[in-house]
Amino acid sequence: MINREVKRVVRLQVVLTLVAVLVAAVIGGFAPILPVSVVIGGLCAIVPALLYGKIAFARRHEPPAVLMRAHFKAEAVKFFTTLLMFGAALVFFKDLSVVGLFGGYMTATSGYWFGLLIKN
Predict the structure, then answer these.
(1) What is the pTM of this model?
(2) Which of 10, 14, 88, 99 is the most buried (most CB within 10 A)?
(3) C-alpha angle with apex 24: 87 to 53, nearest 5 degrees?
(4) How many angstroms separate the CA atoms of 99 and 114, rounded?
């Protein structure tokens, strides 16, 4: 189960990634390489964030040490998932725009920081 705050942050990451895809489509002259690269970069941030939420918040009403271990485990899974996704993107998609890939990742990752600043 993913808690409400994680859903809010992931939703913001998705919205920011979609905006970046539209901008990339206009900048790239509607050629598919740049927007696809931005989508893959955004997914490299969104999927690990979802995994983090599932792992870190799976347990409730546990001692603090157990909750901290869950967060450490979730962060390790998030880190390695991000590395694997970037590696797979760079290996399997030869025509990717590296600028678009990392731009999409940074845009989606900024959703986390904006999520901390924006409270509903």
Answers:
(1) 0.91
(2) 10
(3) 50
(4) 22
